[in-house]
Design a protein that fits this description.
With 303 residues, the protein is an alpha/beta fold. It contains ten helices and eight strands. Strands 5-4-3-6-8-7 form a six-stranded mixed beta sheet.
Amino acid sequence: MSSKLSSGHRADTISLHETESGYVSGSGSDSTFPEIYFTKPHLAFLNRQLQFLEPQDILRWCITSLPGLFQTTAFGLTGLVTLDMLSKMKIPRPQLVDLIFLDTLHHFQETLTLVDRVRSRYPLVNIHVYKPEGTETTDEFIRKHGDRLWETNDELYDWVAKVEPAQRAYRELQVAAVLTGRRRSQGGKRGDLDVIEVDEAGLIKVNPLANWSFQDVQNYVKLNDVPYNELLDRSYKSVGDWHSTQPIKAGEDERAGRWKGQQKTECGIHNPRSKFAQYLREQEMKKQEEALQKALDGLEVAG
């Protein structure tokens, strides 16, 4: 089974004179590129090649090879390093990689302050901010979904705060590929991370710093004076929402402070999308069953 990356162009019919030679020009105003297919052997080949490259070389490959490329980030240390590397490549305007930031409305204030510092440091970079649908503030989120939703319904919280906004961003921005800040040294499900992946929906995910350790990332930040979250100076290493992030102790894994005491290791964005589709289907079926039972109860009363 092959994985595919849609170019985001219309699927127009290519005229005969363009295909007589067996080739199609990308410059024709009436023609479009076909979808790009990555077979499993092709992906395996790409990963064998990319794993030996430095992150900057992986990024250059991405810029020249992947249409619809964006960077998804919560402004963690690895994402900031990626952003700084891109800023030093002197990329022309059409190829600049925009950022997508999912504002869950539950970030630390230090994270939001960092976003402003990033805007100031990298003025050429566009940051697209996506929030939970129909909400602009934490109070609005609570009114719509209830207080402490992450405790009452963790999967629903992940969906409304992170997964749905991400999917909305991908759809509206015509995202075909994303740069992530995941690394193998973060452990958990990330321990056997490939440099390039394709998820179930066909989204390309590239992890340019997959081979780097936390120390490698930290050294780059210091050498290049990259702005970072002030919480990292207070024993935090991986920063997400305030309610699911704690400082860690010496010797603990980098992400040990995320969802501490739970089996959970990912927020949902990097889990299979089918899990959330299944969850929504189950919710809808439950509603239908309740409505049917209510109707049946009404018939019994009437009889």
